[in-house]
Structures are given as structure tokens and as C-alpha cells.
Amino acid sequence: MSPLFFYLFAAILIFASLAVVLARNPLYNVLSLVVAIFSLSCLFVLLEAFFVGMVLLLIYAGAVLVFFLFVVMCLNLNAIPLPNALQNRFRCLGTVAGLMFLSSVFLALKSFLKAQTMEPSSLRGTIESISKILFTDYLLPFELTSLLLLIAIFGIVSLAQGTLSTGKNIENP
Amino acid sequence: MITLEAYLILSGIIFSVGLAGVITSRSVLKVLLSLELLLAASNLSFVAFSKFNGDYTGQLVVFFIILVAAAEVAIGLAIIVLMYRQLSTIQSDELRTMKW
To answer: Is B16 on the interface with A (CB under 8 A)?
Structure first.
């Protein structure tokens, strides 16, 4: 729980997530999200949630973002110049919404955390302690997620076949 | 000593950046990436609350969020690939027709 590591990884996380939103090249967006997820899992380790941090690193940075990268390279994307007025309108709207949300977070935290100061517990999220709960209290949701993944596989396969439900070929509608 | 407040502020900052990204970006791929940022921010606050409350449930919720996000990303990317095949662009405002 060294504060130095927290500030280091927090700074990396903030800059990487800014790069996700601001970078022009889609490849850089995906790669900076990899950096963000990596520093997030370092923060999880600082919070002693070892199992979740490991899963985040394996599934997110290992599988999901590589999948993103694969799609970006597959699609051969070019930057499209936008009409300037439209672009500015979108950018102002999004920035204002983000700042409003940020200020509401600060206000909520001010009212929430003045009343109580919480101390970190001695909780250690190792595989043993997590799986003890996962396979007793949360067994049904855990099994249901396997069903969810199965349905996702069905969806992807039926989408990737390239035919719509009407039997029309999607290549030449 | 890092307090709970620091983690929550960090999570709020990441969430705001992701929210601004969802609204501003017009490429569908970037919207999906910003959605991942929103999920990451909520994951961080779940784990921080779990640590400071002394309860494992928050970490389990994060585990389930990761599973659901994997399914969501797979389906979303499949839709993006289909959209690119159909329209040869992934700009979201090119999606004007609902039925053809």
C-alpha cells in the first residue's frame, strides 16, 4: 500500500485513458487502453485484490484488447475529415458532459466521506478466498454466466455468417 | 496511506473521461473503447469499496463485470465488422437507415 505506487499508477491510468479518447489513430486508442488496463490491474494488486487483477490482465489485456487490435487491423480504417462546425459541436457537448459528471462526483464525495473515515480492512482477494465464496453463495450466477457466454457465441456465429434472418445476402443487399 | 476517497476520485476521473469519449467520438470502435473505460472505472470503485468494507462481494461483482464485458465486446466487434462490410465505414452517423 505504498502511496508512491498509487500515484504512479493513477497518473499512468489517467494519461492512458485520456489517450484512449483523444488519439487520432485507432491503433493508438487500443494500445493506450492496454496500458490503462495494465495500470488498473496494478492498482487492484495494491488493493490486495490479486485474483481480480490477474483476471483483468488475462482476459482484458490478453484477450479482449487483442481482439480489438485484430478488428482494427482487419478493417483498414482511414481518418475521415469532418465538417468543422459539426466536430466542434460534438466536442463541446462531450467535454461539458464529462466536466459536469466530474463535478457531480466531487460534490457527492464531499457529502459522503465527511461523515465517515473508513480504514482499509485486512481483506486479501486470493484465489482461495474468492473461489470459496464463488462456489457457495454465488454458484447460480456463476453458472448463468456460462449460459450468457454460450448465447454470445451463438450471436457471434450467426452474425459472422453474413446472412440476415430474411435469407438475403448481406454482401449485396 | 491512501484513503478510499483517493480511489473514488480516480474512478470518477476515469469515468468522466470515458463519458466524454462516448459522447464525442463518432467512430463506433472508439465508442466501444470508451465504454471499456466506463467499465474499468466502475471496477476500480467496486474493488476499493470491497477493500475498505471488508467484503468479498465487490470483487465478485468485478469478476462478473469482466465476463459480461467480454461477451459485449465480442458481439459489438462482430456488429462493427458487419457494418464495415455493409457501409465500408464505421462512422456512427452513417447509420441512417433502420430497415432496407
So the answer is: yes
B67 band by pLDDT with thresholds 50, 70 and 90: very high
A146 found inside a domain: yes
Domains and CATH numbers, chain B: 4-94 (1.10.287.3510)
Element containing residue B4 per DSSP (H, E): helix B4-24
Closest CA to B59 of B41, B76, B45: B45
- Per-residue confidence band for A167, with pLDDT thresholds at 50, 70 and 90: very low
* Alpha-carbon gap, residue B10 to B82, rounded angstroms: 36
| Residue A117 within any structural domain of the chain | no
Please report the ipTM that was assigned to this predicted complex.
0.90
> A88 lies in a domain?
no
Chain A touched by B87 (CB under 8 Å): no
Model pTM greater than 0.80? yes
